[in-house]
Write a structure and sequence with these properties.
Distance between the termini: 34 Å
Order of helices and strands: EHEHHEEEEEEEHEEEHEEHEEEHEEEEH
Strand content: 15-25%
Largest sheet: 7 strands, mixed
CATH superfamily of the largest domain: FAD/NAD(P)-binding domain
Length: about 425
């Protein structure tokens, strides 16, 4: 059965909901097609039990649902985020169709609009907004197939808590915020943890009297636009090492080493129960240290330039991890490893759009979400327009822009 509608939004996460909010406010006919059976599936199904927002509550800025609670400097839990999203849909009557898996989006035969094919039927739409996000499938390397069958392998989104893993040591692969938070929870529960370290940077949770993310907003760090990046691939960098757990805390690999975590270089290969490791641990540690130094210098400069009354803050320079021996290989059985957590990030795939709309990296070719194909838009990815484009603090800006383009009828024009 074919159904006609002005706009189809593919994906009912925060980006799709924000776009729907603005289209609803503008009185534009639309529908959200979400493959999951419930709202907030990424938060409900792909986060561990103790997960909290990485950024403070004040940064929860879904349009029309901005945080106004009593704890702006706290960190919403996974369940609280889910409740906020469910209330958002209910309060604004957003037209979400759950269990609606989109199989393809292709140009309509008459040259105007698109055919959106789902498991349950076909939609004919003048406009389509792709809001499936950046984090669609967990990144698990091919070498995982070469690991012993007796070792449990779990992507970070499927990890729940230490008790859900079999007894024994755990290897965590990836040191951005997910990998570090999971590793910390595991070793604090009494587990022996091995952590393969990548090039993700570190920031202190608080600095000179404020949460670091408040400073990053003030200095314009979150508003950096994609054209300022040194290379197009820079937009795929790992998220900063920091946590919102227990009211917010700094994550520091040197502290991890001090607490007994064995830090390793990045994973290069596996054979016969032995993993091979790169000799880049110290280089990666230096990258994390340098990120913290750059960020704090940026904040110091902003404070000085604006004459702000902010107390000086000297961070304790930990260097423990540099003294750790460089390990070239690890025999998993001898190390007692019973489980591996893959915290290497996610992959994205926009092949459901049957048009040449992505670049060599698979990232959509667009300007602030507007493609060269009339009526086809993207929203919700990091660096779509700004650093914060994929975050709760910034997704609403791009959603408003796309909704206004649809309402103004600019979808009939090629380009921006």
């Amino acid at each position: 059965m074919n159904q006609r509608i002005e706009t189809v939004i593919v994906g009912g996460g925060q980006a799709g909901l924000a776009t729907s909010y603005y289209l609803t406010a503008l009185g534009r006919e639309h529908v959200i097609l979400e493959r999951a059976p419930h709202t907030g599936s990424a938060w409900r199904d792909d986060r561990w039990d103790s997960f909290t927002l990485l950024t403070p509550n004040w940064s929860f800025r879904l349009p029309g649902a901005e945080y106004r609670g009593q704890d702006p400097d706290g960190f919403l839990t996974r369940q609280e985020v889910i409740a906020h999203l469910e209330q958002y849909v209910k309060e604004y009557h957003l037209p979400v169709h759950h269990r609606a898996t989109v199989r393809s989006v292709e140009p309509a035969g008459n040259g105007t609009g698109y055919v959106v094919r789902t498991d349950g039927g076909t939609w004919l739409a003048r406009h389509v907004v792709i809001a499936t996000g950046f984090f669609q499938h967990p990144r698990v390397p091919a070498l995982s197939a070469d690991l012993p069958a007796g070792i449990i392998q779990v992507p970070s989104g499927q990890y729940r808590n230490p008790d859900a893993l079999p007894p024994g040591a755990v290897l965590v692969v990836g040191s951005a915020q997910s990998g570090c938070q999971i590793a910390e929870e595991l070793y604090e529960s009494g587990r022996k943890v091995y952590l393969c370290v990548g090039r993700a940077g570190r920031v202190p949770r608080r600095y000179r009297g404020r949460d670091t993310f408040e400073w990053l907003e003030l200095v314009g760090f979150l508003d950096r636009t994609v054209d300022t990046l040194p290379t197009p691939r820079a937009k795929f960098g790992g998220s900063l090492q920091v946590s919102g757990r227990d009211g917010g805390r700094t994550l520091n690999l040197h502290q991890f080493a001090r607490d007994g975590v064995t830090l390793l270089g990045h994973l290069e290969g596996a054979r016969d129960g032995v993993i091979r490791l790169a000799s880049d641990l110290r280089e990666n540690l230096a990258q994390a240290d340098e990120t913290e130094a750059q960020i704090t210098r940026l904040i110091d400069g902003y404070i000085a330039q604006n004459g702000l009354d902010a107390p000086p803050d000297e961070l304790v320079p930990l260097r423990d991890a540099y003294a750790a021996p460089e390990i070239a290989s690890l025999v998993l059985k001898a190390a007692g490893v019973s489980a591996i957590i893959w915290a290497m990030g996610y992959t994205f795939d926009y092949s459901l759009v049957r048009l040449p709309v992505v670049d060599a990296d698979g990232y959509p070719v667009q300007t602030r979400g507007v493609t060269a194909y009339p009526g086809l838009y993207f929203v919700g990815m990091p660096w779509l327009h700004k650093f914060k484009s994929g975050l709760l603090i910034g997704v609403g800006e791009d959603a408003e822009h796309i909704a206004s383009r649809i309402a103004a009828g600019d979808a009939l024009q090629t380009g921006v």
